[in-house]
Amino acid sequence: xxxxxxVFKARLQVADIDHGYYADHAVTxxxxxxxxxxxxxxxxxxxxxxxxxxxxxxxGGGAWRFGRGLSDPDDPDLxxxxxxxxxxxxxxxxxxxxxxxxxxxxxxxxxxLYAYAAQAEVWxxxxxxxxxxxxxxxxxxxxxxxxxxxxxxxxxxxxWQATLxxxxxxxxxxxxxxxxxxxxxx
Length: 186
Known about the structure:
single chain
């Protein structure tokens, strides 16, 4: 018998001072049985970091949605689709191979990857020369200490205040506070 995904509900209040974006997002995330709390929370942090695109890119028309994640490797972890269903921003988390990234770049206007975990630097050294040719790809590194701290704060029902100022994401909730400073690799 296959294990079912665990459902997490989150209310994310975004105050993105860098981009002048302020909005609340009520989201449902399904955590695949093989997904860690760290990966789940990185997906939520990715939404906080990219949420402004809804306004700046689409003028408020369109929607963010979480993909099926580990259940379907061809589905993004997070996607911003316009009203026609076209993928405008495709977000991946982790350390994927080159082929899925190239495929995502062909399917979306922009692809953003958030690499995390202690071994991210080793992964990047091995793949960097092969993905630099992908024109629509951005690669960011989230510090392992911050993503591990976020994992410790995961809960089935969460409310987070996300403030983005001068490139620093501050996430505060009932369980605690974590600062995440993304580093751009590409």
